[in-house]
Amino acid sequence: MQIPKRKSEEDRRNLAGPVDNYVTRARLEGWKKELIRLKTVDHRPAAEEVARTQAMGDLSENAGYQDAKWRLRKINARILSLNEMIKNAVVIETGTNPDGSIKVGSTVILEQNGQENTFIILGTSESNPLQGRISYSSPLGSLLLNKHAGDTVQVKTLNAEINYKILRVS
């Protein structure tokens, strides 16, 4: 079944700017499973609900119809979004650059004030600093790219400058 493209959705995507395409293989597989579920399980009942509520009469005052239509639009928008993300995905390969420097997908052990922290450098959609997953475009992540074990980086914040020593890269 062809999913209609709404002009407003296309405009919104065009205004969004460049998209971060770096994802782990697990995230990409999750998107593919979600897309299959939306197309095979969720879409048909939502479309049938729109047809069923549409038959109930005056569409301008039919809250059930409006709600069903909104749910179908939400499913269609997510399908379009997932198709776009899957099409443009760049799967992150773990490890380092050939010269041993940090790249997207590297695991890094940093020392700051005698305390060791482990981070993995990922794309923005998968970052979660509290879980040790930082974006390559974050202040710390961008400074770490192409650095080696033994290097030091300095992150400047509004209140302080924080120095990190790179202990290990893998």
TrEMBL record:
One of its GO terms (biological process) is regulation of DNA-templated transcription elongation. Residues 98-170 form the Transcription elongation factor GreA/GreB C-terminal domain. Residues 21-91 form the Transcription elongation factor GreA/GreB N-terminal domain. InterPro entries: GreA/GreB_C_sf, Tscrpt_elong_fac_GreA/B_C, Tscrpt_elong_fac_GreA/B_fam, Tscrpt_elong_fac_GreA/B_N, Tscrpt_elong_fac_GreA/B_N_sf. Keywords: DNA-binding, Elongation factor, Protein biosynthesis, Transcription, Transcription regulation. One of its GO terms (molecular function) is RNA polymerase binding. It holds the Pfam family GreA_GreB_N. Belongs to the GreA/GreB family. PANTHER family: TRANSCRIPTION ELONGATION FACTOR GREA. This is Transcription elongation factor GreA. It comes from Candidatus Uhrbacteria bacterium CG_4_9_14_3_um_filter_41_35.
